[in-house]
Amino acid sequence: MSEIDRFFQLLSSLPGKSYDRELDFIRDVIPTLAEILGYSEAETFYELAAGRYRADVVLTNSIDSTPWVVIELKRKQARNLGDWAYQIKNYLSAFGSRTGVVLSTEVLILVHEGQTVTFSLRDLTPHEAAHILQSISRATQPAPASGISHHESEIANLIEAAETAADNEKKGKSLEALARALIRSVPSLACKYANLQTRSSEIDIVVEYDSLRGRIQLLEESGRYILVECKNWNKPAGVAPVRDFMGKLDKCKIRLGVLFSKNGVTGVDSGADALREIQSRFDRDGVYVLVFSLEDVRRIENGKDFINKLDQKADALRFDM
After folding, report:
1. Beta 69-74 vs 99-104: how paired, if at all?
2. Which residues are in the Restriction endonuclease type IV Mrr domain (predicted)?
3. pLDDT, mean of residues 45-74
4. Would you say 110 and 120 are in contact if contact means Cβ atoms under 8 Å apart?
5. What phi and psi, each to the nearest 5 degrees, are found at residue 256?
6. Does the structure show a pLDDT above 70 at 272?
7. Region 192-213: what's the mean pLDDT?
8. Quick one: average pLDDT of 88-98?
């Protein structure tokens, strides 16, 4: 069966289907769609952000390149198809891309090089399927343009804000914003809760891992959630706040915590040494507390760098390096 036939068959199979969750729609359609179009798993990114926009699927060779195609999925019927077209155009503007698709079980909206065409999937013809395929297949895409990414610019601005914040409230919020931006740069991580008030404490950020959007070996081992704590202090965080953070991890039964601390944590020269406490806790219970100073963050260029740094810090604990 040819690519055009497979593509036509896939789109024609959608009318009449229903999904309880958008994630179910994504899982059912996108891997097959990407494979038909000629994109590899490494070129298929989920929940990728650009500014205040977060696209369901982005087809690109890296998160720092201009995407070939931006895709939004809609599991419900549209009240106004014009709203969907307007949304995808905003996404294309944010990502700097020339091609976008809105896909539901009933319609496909194609925005390509400034032209917008809406196709009814119930009435789709093989000729129309071939036209869509020509616009979005991997074989017809140019090499994505790279340069200073939106992510790099955003991180640089947030680092400056964290360094120059004048009062305690601004200091805390600026570092939390920086942490969220780093998390958003990883397609398989999402900030599920921010400033979560529990019965016993406040958790700065709860991060949820979804392996469908890209496997991270460390998270495969440690579990579904990460807790994040932010300390934008003028001195290293001591053993007391580290123990407090560990208590939150214990209460939530989570084995991986990330501590963003502007000046790191107290070292081996201190009598009440936070680094020693972190190492001891891992040796005893296998609980990771990974510390990122502002200097660490300056060396992170993209989501892949962030995951590599997480892995390096986890290895440093595991092997007592």
Report:
1. parallel
2. 197-266
3. 86
4. no
5. -135, 120
6. no
7. 88
8. 93
- Is the separation of the CB atoms in 102 and 109 below 8 Å? yes
Name the band, by pLDDT with cuts 50, 70 and 90, for residue 91: very high
- Cα dihedral 98/32/128/113 (nearest 10): 0
User: Which domains are present in the chain?
Assistant: 3-140 (3.90.1570), 150-318 (3.40.1350)
Sheet of 99-104: strands edge to edge? 44-50, 53-59, 69-74, 99-104, 107-112, 115-120
| Tokens encoding 123 | 């009435």
Sheet holding 225-231, edge to edge: 189-197, 202-209, 225-231, 256-261, 288-292
**Secondary structure class of 59 (helix, strand, coil):** strand
Q: Which pLDDT band holds residue 271 (cuts at 50, 70, 90)?
A: very low
**Which residues make Cβ contacts (< 8 Å) with residue 60, sequence separation at least 6?**
43, 45, 66, 67, 68, 144
Distance between CA atoms of residues 169 and 144, nearest Å: 40
Q: Residue 100 and residue 49: Cα distance in Å, rounded?
A: 15
DSSP codes, 116-136: EEEEESTT--HHHHHHHHHHH
Task: Assign 269 to helix, strand or coil.
Answer: coil
Give percent of the chain with pLDDT exceeding 90: 59
* Spatial contact of 152 and 64, defined as CB atoms under 8 Å apart: yes
Q: What share of the chain is helix, strand, coil (3-state, %, to 5)?
A: 45, 25, 30
Query: Are 207 and 190 a contacting pair, CB within 8 Å?
Result: yes
* CA angle (24, 29, 33) in 5-degree steps: 155
CA dist 84 and 23 (Å) reads 18
